[in-house]
UniProtKB/TrEMBL annotation:
<keyword id="KW-0732">Signal</keyword>
<feature type="domain" description="ABC transporter substrate-binding protein PnrA-like">
    <location>
        <begin position="79"/>
        <end position="368"/>
    </location>
</feature>
<feature type="signal peptide">
    <location>
        <begin position="1"/>
        <end position="21"/>
    </location>
</feature>
<comment type="similarity">
    <text>Belongs to the BMP lipoprotein family.</text>
</comment>
<keyword id="KW-0449">Lipoprotein</keyword>
<dbReference type="Pfam" id="PF02608">
    <property type="entry name" value="Bmp"/>
</dbReference>
<dbReference type="InterPro" id="IPR003760">
    <property type="entry name" value="PnrA-like"/>
</dbReference>
<keyword id="KW-1003">Cell membrane</keyword>
<dbReference type="InterPro" id="IPR050957">
    <property type="entry name" value="BMP_lipoprotein"/>
</dbReference>
<keyword id="KW-0472">Membrane</keyword>
<dbReference type="GO" id="GO:0005886">
    <property type="term" value="C:plasma membrane"/>
</dbReference>
<dbReference type="InterPro" id="IPR028082">
    <property type="entry name" value="Peripla_BP_I"/>
</dbReference>
<feature type="region of interest" description="Disordered">
    <location>
        <begin position="25"/>
        <end position="66"/>
    </location>
</feature>
<protein>
    <submittedName>
        <fullName>Basic membrane protein A</fullName>
    </submittedName>
</protein>
<feature type="compositionally biased region" description="Gly residues">
    <location>
        <begin position="27"/>
        <end position="39"/>
    </location>
</feature>
């Protein structure tokens, strides 16, 4: 395993450069909290909560006139991990399943990428779907961007969508992108409020700009909640090695390292590797935050659900559902340019009731972001 970054305020203090402005105070370690959370140590002073508040993520897709999608044949090309990853791909699958239930969608086909596969494998997968008459075709993940660019040009009458990329400038391609940093900000606040050590951690799957958005928002949320809090940030693999999204054992090792340094709430954005992060949290009796799907309710990680206090909801399910609906209704121009907090494209989960006591606080920060009073950067601090 190669670690691409480790960020703690203690380490920064040794070099004399602050990683998080105003977070210089070291509140000390302390024992790990019991599973289920609790209030912060008194030494971790929280910043004033902004005025206002709104509702948390409702978990619903858009409403409107009933749409019939029974004539569509929808192809879904998953990223590595596929259906069953308890994260990003499963969220896409949930959107497809809801489209079947709500809109009468009948014919679908799902294909899955292999770790570190060559580019032509992605193109072959998309081309296969197009040749078999699937239309639209949804590519789940930015890794498909180049392949969609090539294949969509060959099939101009087939509609394509790319989750997490909007760089393909073809008339038959729609980008479905998100404000991951906004949702991550909110769970950063939650992490501070549920930490006893005033010390939290982030585990990313692969060190790429997309996952850095999760880190960036999380760190800013932590800083907004408390100037005292420490943050660990580490990636399972560097850019170019996408096995970091499908290696629970390495996720476990990285999480255990952060826990050993004092982090008692760990936020993971690591795909299927997040299972290992959850297992590490449970074995060390600390807390965890999921990502993409409401992971408290995911069957594949149910053995760790008692330590999952919330999940940052990246509503790939909403985007997939809304895209299918827009294709069926010929209303693609109504889709949001970016699925952010205002569009219910990101948010946080409340399953399990473990953050019910701080929901008003999270909603106050949420409203500040929606109103433009807080701007969340998508670039992590150094």
């Amino acid at each position: 395993m190669r670690r691409s970054r480790v960020t703690t305020l203690a380490a920064v203090a040794l070099t004399g450069a602050l990683a998080l402005a105003g977070c210089a105070k070291d509140s000390g370690g302390g024992s790990a909290p019991p599973a289920g959370g609790g209030n912060q140590a008194e030494s971790c002073k929280k910043n004033p909560v902004p005025a206002g508040g709104g509702g948390g993520s409702t978990g619903t897709t858009s409403t409107g006139p009933k749409v019939d999608a029974s004539a569509l044949k929808v192809g879904l090309a998953y990223d590595i991990g596929g259906r069953g990853d308890a994260s990003f791909n499963d969220s896409a699958a949930a959107g497809l399943d809801k489209a079947k239930a709500d809109m009468g969608l009948k014919e679908t086909k799902e294909l899955t990428a292999a770790p570190n596969e060559p580019e032509d494998a992605k193109q072959s997968r998309l081309r296969q779907l197009a040749q078999e008459g699937f239309n639209p075709i949804i590519a789940v993940g930015f890794a498909y961007a180049k392949s969609v660019q090539a294949v969509a040009a060959q099939f101009p009458n087939t509609k394509f969508a790319v989750v997490d990329d909007d760089t393909v400038q073809l008339p038959n391609v729609t980008g479905l992108v998100f404000a991951e940093e906004q949702g991550s900000f909110l769970v950063g606040v939650a992490a501070v409020y549920k930490s006893k050590n005033c010390h939290v951690g982030f585990v990313g799957g692969v060190n790429v700009p997309l996952i850095q958005k999760f880190e960036a928002g999380f760190k800013q949320g932590v800083k907004a909640a408390s100037n005292d809090a420490k943050v660990e940030a580490e990636y399972i693999t560097p850019a170019g090695d996408f096995t970091g999204f499908q290696d629970p054992a390495k996720g476990n090792v990285v999480a255990n390292g952060e826990i050993s340094r004092g982090a008692d709430v760990i936020y993971q954005a690591a795909g299927a590797s997040g299972k290992g992060v959850f297992e590490a949290a449970k074995s060390k009796n600390v807390l965890a935050i999921g990502v993409d799907s409401d992971q408290y309710n995911q069957k594949t990680v149910e053995n760790s659900r008692d330590v999952i206090i919330t999940s940052m909801l990246k509503r790939v399910d909403v985007a997939v559902y809304d895209y299918v609906r827009a294709v069926a209704g010929n209303t693609l121009n109504t889709l949001p340019k970016r699925f952010d907090l205002k569009a219910d494209g990101v948010g946080y989960a409340t399953s399990g009731g473990k953050i019910d006591d701080i929901k008003a606080t999270l909603d106050a920060y949420k409203q500040q972001i929606i109103d433009g009073k807080i701007t969340v950067s998508d670039k992590p601090s150094s």
